[in-house]
Amino acid sequence: MTETQPSENKPKAGAMIVPVTPFEQNCTLLWCTATQKAVVIDPGGDVDRIQAAIAEAKVAVEKIWITHGHIDHVGGAADLRDALKVQIEGPHLADKFLLDNVVTSGQRFGMSGMRDFAPDRWLDEGEQVSVGELTFDILHCPGHSPGSVVFFNKELRFAHVGDVLFNGSVGRTDLPGGDHATLIRSIKQKLLPLGDDVGFICGHGAGSRIGHERMTNPFLTGAM
User: Fold this and answer.
1) Tens-digit pLDDT profile for residues 112-145
2) In what order do the strands lie in the sheet with 208-209?
3) Which fold has domain 12-221?
4) Among 153, 121, 120, 126, CA closest to 141
5) Are 15 and 201 in contact (CB under 8 A)?
6) What is the rounded CA–CA span in Å between residue 52 and residue 66?
7) What does the alpha-carbon distance between residue 9 and residue 158 come to, in Å, rounded to a whole number?
8) Domain map of the chain by residue range?
9) Which segments of 10-149 does DSSP mark as H helices, in order?
10) Across the strands, what pairs with 41?
11) Which alpha helices (H) appear in the chain, and where do they start and end?
């Protein structure tokens, strides 16, 4: 055995899910194990809890990524950006109307201390983002919200899908800008072709694999 083999077998990415807000949203700390550089995906609130997870993981956060503009995914983004002095990337520009009304949305759900903000970079289909040595493709998947994006790493066979697709369900479409037919089209045209072996973290609840959802999700099999 050569000295390089253990490092070659070491996982290239690590992840920690930090449930935040009364909605139990899966704020995700994702990092490159080679560099220990990390990204926080969807810091919806409870910024102190997120910062404690960062310290526990002993990683250096260099970016914040946003899948879409709903309050439980973005409520803590402005405060975390200021605390960590990093840039925010995402979502798609179509969710600007949501980011312009974070405070109002928070008040509607009894959530205080939120701030409206704009990302440092809007994301669009075909673009890429990176953290450490990991690169993710951007898929624009409207339907749950007009500007929802998915982060996909082809090498790792892994995606973070936000609220587009869930284990056994799909994102709700009764909020402003939502459309069920558009959402199902996004899933079938953008996510299912990624491959049955692709695992994903979603915005709420347990993750799953694309193949499992393709075969059993009632919203995709026609049972719903």
Assistant:
1) 889 999 999 999 999 999 999 999 999 999 999 9
2) 128-131, 134-140, 149-153, 158-160, 199-201, 208-209
3) Metallo-beta-lactamase; Chain A (3.60.15)
4) 126
5) yes
6) 20
7) 17
8) 12-221
9) 47-57, 71-74, 77-84, 96-99, 102-108
10) 28, 65
11) 5-9, 47-57, 71-74, 77-84, 96-99, 102-108, 180-186, 210-216, 218-221
